Every structure is written in structure tokens, then in C-alpha cells.
Amino acid sequence: MALPSGLDSQIFIIGCGISGIGAAQKLLKHGFSNVRIIEATARSGGRIRTGRLGWSGLLHCSSQTLEQPALSCDNIVEIGANWIHGPSKENPVFRLACDYQLLDKESMSEENQAIDMGGHPLFVPNWFTSSGRKLRPETMAPAVEFFMKLLERSQQFYESGGEPLPSVGEFLKAEAERLAPEEWKEDQANIKIRMAMINTLLKVECCVSGTHTMDDVGLGAFGMYKTLPGLDCTFPGGYESLIDHMMKELPKDIVLYNKPVKCIHWNYTKNGPDTKGTSFPVTIECLDGKTFAADHVIVTVPLGYLKKHQDTFLSPSLPQHKLHSIQRMGFGTNNKIFLEFEQPFWEEDCELIYLVWEDETDLADVVSDVKMSWIRKLFGFTVLKPAERFGNVLCGWIAGHESEYMETLSEFEVLQSVTQLLRKFTGNPTIAPRKLLRSQWFHNPYSFGSYTYVAKGCSGYDIDNLAKPLPLKDSNAKPLQVLFAGEATHRSFFSTVHGALLTGWREAERLVSLYTPASGSLSSKL
User: Fold this and answer.
1) Could you give the percent of the chain with pLDDT greater than 70?
2) What is the mean pLDDT of the chain?
3) I need a labelling partner for 157 at 20 to 30 A (CA). Which of 4, 31, 326, 517 fits?
């Protein structure tokens, strides 16, 4: 039953990432007047974070940068979210980017929107091996094609059921070892190097899924992730340009920055702070001791943060079924290492550099000794294009515990390791990157990793469970006290920016619907 009035309800949103910003925008558009965002850090954007090589820390490429001269946004790099995945009309991030005119003409073209790569764009690659050889496309392309077919098969068990093995990794390894000898029996000379290439591709998938190993990713739920059509594209002015435009549509004082939340007290029976006798069901307690009374709270923090603070973040504690779902779901680390060079050592049309270890013919996407061999987990580099915008910059990709260990090393140690790696694989002893910048998402105290994946034993039920508001429907308490948004709460688009945005809108819509009769006009406008 809809409540008589609620536009003056006190609504707080925890987290000023795109999910929280999207929720605030929608609520304000529907007339809610008391909406605030509480953000633990000094900035908006969350896991959308744009940086620039050559500056200490990260440069926010924005006209709002305080006490900075006007700067070109050339040579920017994405520390966090990188692409619009599936830039087509079904993607709300793409629609917003078009509305704000943040993309180039090619990215917005009908032709670009119609291309469907199934989530794996075909980059033009260069292949280098650990003996310093450069491999020919005709040698390596069959390995990529073979692996992609296996990967496609691994996504089909979600619809068909009957998963033959518990994890994607186990399935891919078993099928590759079973089928490869027959697949390449006419080309015995290249079987070993192609198996080593498949091992590299397993490391690629660890980065795509944001997991330590594909053995941790559940086979039955793997196909739950849905891709959208459109050739993945980037923001010429940086992903944060989208955040900047969204923030400009919000009241200037809506965000309380540098305010980490210690605990959300819900089903609160006492009068909230400074409420003049009015009873509020929720009190938000911040680390600095400040408290806020609320009718509704939308939690948009990353799953990694919920995992870390699951016992203390809410009081009363989360119900057991929610806790179990949080524990079952996967949240891993995928980091980037940016390198700038005086001159490129890669071919002009190259978009992706694969590193193939010739001794890795027994398939394993983890290293045996993290401290000694962490660099082996780095599968290769994407080339930032166009060079006119970025300069000669490569982005290395590394996932898992090896990536987490990399974060603990100094920039000099990382630069030294990556330089040695490139010299070994190219056979060029003079290669010397002149600048380095790396992400460190695992040691970020408000994310504890990068994004969500469906772990072994996890299902769509767990994602739906996480998304359910508190208190549960059979309770007599005030409804929708604590709502949950963020990429981890979207069944089809977990791990994506558009998934995060859609869930922020979804939870805002719940509150709009709560205070609007079913036949009312507000619901129809959403």
C-alpha cells in the first residue's frame, strides 16, 4: 500500500560512485527534496577514476580542478573503469555519454553500435615469447580461435544446465588438453607454443572476470553475464568527464565528502539525532562520530567492502541469507600498469601485445611462487590509441593474488620488473619505459578489489538476495529502510558501469513507487 506522502523523506545514499549519483539524480527528478550522498573519500566517481602519467598522484581532468591552470586532457589514463562495454542504445551509460556529447563520432555511429563481439573485441595483436621471438599470426591465430570456441561453450551451461565441472577454469583446461592434440594433429610443430598461448589466454580471462584463477569462477553461472552490442569505446576526455557532467546536475552541497560510515543502525526505535522528537527508523553513524537520521538509506558500496565489514556495517547485522550470499559471491582484483615510451617497439597497427611463456605448456593460470614470479601473471598490454591523444603508452593487465602482491612493491621495483620482462620477450636490451603509473585497487580501503564475479557455488539467487531491501517484506516495520545498489547487485551486468548505474536507478524507483499509487503518473515516467 502506498504511503500518503514521502517527498520530504530523509534519504541518504552511501557512496558517490555512478550508482549513488544515478540514484540521487532520479530521486531529485521525482521531487524528493531531502536527498544527501555520504562519501568516504574526497572525490566522486568511485571505481571510475581518471589519471595522467607524469603527475604525482592522479590528475582529475576537469574544469573543476581547484587552483590549477587550464590543462589539456591529452595523455590521460583510466585507473579504474576503462570502456563503455556494449555502446548501443540499450546501454544507459552510452546514452548519457551521447547526451552529454562526450564521445567521438565513430563511437556514436550506427555502424559501431551494430557490431556485436560477444564481449571480446578483436584487437590486432603482436605475439612475443619468453625466448625473445616474435610469432607470426598464422602460428598463433588458431590457438585464439580454438580458445574462444571453448569459452563460448563454457557460457552455455547457464541456459542448458548440467555443468560437467564446478568451474570455468577446470572446464577450459580439461577441454583444451583433450581436444588440442586432435585439433592440431596436422601441425605438430606448433602444438606446444599454442598450448602456452592458451595459458596466456587463461590469464586474460582472469583479468576480464577480475578473479585470481578461473578455477574460482562457477561454470553453471558463468553465462549469466549478458553482453550488449556495440564495439567497446572510451571517453576522449576520460571516464570522469561523465561523472563531472552528472554531478553538475546535482545541488552543489548534496555530497558530504571525507565521511566514512561506521555503521547503519536500522529498525531504530529511539528518536534519531536532531530530529525534534520525530522518530526515524535508520541512524547512520560515521567514523568521526557524526550521526544522521534517515527514513531510507541506499547502500552502493563495493562488494569487497561489504565482505570486509559484513559483521559491523549494519546493526542489527545482515540477515543470515544475505551474509551467506555475500560470502559466496566473488570479488577479485584486476590492476593496470601504464608505461610510457620514447618510441614504440610494437607495430603501428598493433592494439594488443601478448606475452607467451614457452615453458607454460601445462595449463595453470596462477604462479607457484607469488613473490618470485608475480610478473608471470601479467598476460600482456593493450596499446592506448590513438597515439596522437595518448603518446606511446601501453597498459599492462594483471589479476589475482599476484596483482595484489604487485601493489605492495615500490614503483621502482615494478618498473624494474616490467622493463626486464619486456627486454626478455622482445629480445631488445635497450627498451626502457620512461614513466609508470599503476592502480592499487586491492589496498584501497573502500573497495578491497576491483569488481564482482560469479564464484563457484554462487548463483543468480545470491545476486538477487544481495539486492533485496531491508527489512524483508513480511516485517511490520517501516519498509525500504536499507536498499542495496552497485554492480554486484545486477544479475546480468555485474562488474560493469552500466550495471552499477541501472541498480542505482532501480533502488530510486523502489522509493518512488513506495510513495506513488500504482495508477499514479510518477511510475510511468521512469
Assistant:
1) 91
2) 91
3) 326
Helix (H) or strand (E) run with residue 201 in it = helix 191-209
Q: Write out pLDDT tens, residues 115-167.
A: 887 767 778 999 999 999 999 999 999 999 999 999 999 999 999 988 999 99
Eight-state DSSP code of residue 156: S
Count CA atoms closer than 13 A to 407's CA, side-chain side.
20
The residue whose grid cell reads 589519471 is 51
Q: Which CATH number fits domain 125-226+334-438: 2.60.40.10, 3.30.830.10, 3.40.390.10, 3.90.660.10?
A: 3.90.660.10
Note if the bond before 251 is cis, omega within 30 degrees: no
Mean pLDDT of 327-346: 97
Task: Fill in the DSSP letter of residue 189.
Answer: G
Please give the share of the chain, as a percent, with pLDDT higher than 90. Answer: 83
pLDDT of residue 191: 94
Q: How confident is the model at residue 522 (pLDDT cuts 50, 70, 90)?
A: very low
Tell me the per-residue pLDDT of 407-433, one tens digit each, with 9 for 90 and over. 999 999 999 999 999 999 999 999 999
Q: Is 236 exposed, middle or buried (0-12, 13-18, 19+ CB in 10 A)?
A: middle
Rounded distance between C-alpha atoms, residue 252 and residue 255, angstroms: 8
Is there a cis peptide before residue 445, judged by omega within 30 degrees of 0? no
Q: Which phi and psi (to 5°) does residue 373 adopt?
A: -125, 20
Q: Residue 521: which residues within 8 A CB-CB, separation 6 or more?
A: none
CATH architecture of 10-48+239-330+448-525: 3-Layer(bba) Sandwich (3.50)
> 0.85 cut: is pTM over it?
yes
CA-CA distance, 404 to 394, in Å (whole number)?
20
* Domain ranges across the chain: 10-48+239-330+448-525, 125-226+334-438
Cα separation of 117 and 99, whole Å? 24
For 84, residues 6+ apart whose C-beta sits below 8 A from its C-beta are 91, 93, 94, 97, 103, 107, 230, 232, 233, 234, 235, 497, 498
How many Å apart are CA 62 and CA 52, to the nearest integer?
12
- Give the CA radius of gyration of the chain: 24
Strands (DSSP E) found in 118-208: 125-129, 134-135
* pLDDT tens digits along 363-392: 999 999 999 999 999 999 999 988 888 889
d(C-alpha 522, C-alpha 526), whole Å: 7
Residue ranges of alpha helices (H) inside 359-496 are 370-373, 387-390, 400-408, 411-426, 460-467
Distance CA 341, CA 436 (A): 10
Residue of 433, 352, 368, 397 whose CA lies nearest to 144: 352
Which grid coordinates belong to 193?
A: 607454443
- From 509, 22, 79, select the one nearest 246 (Cα to Cα): 22
Q: How far apart are CA 102 and CA 76, in angstroms?
A: 15
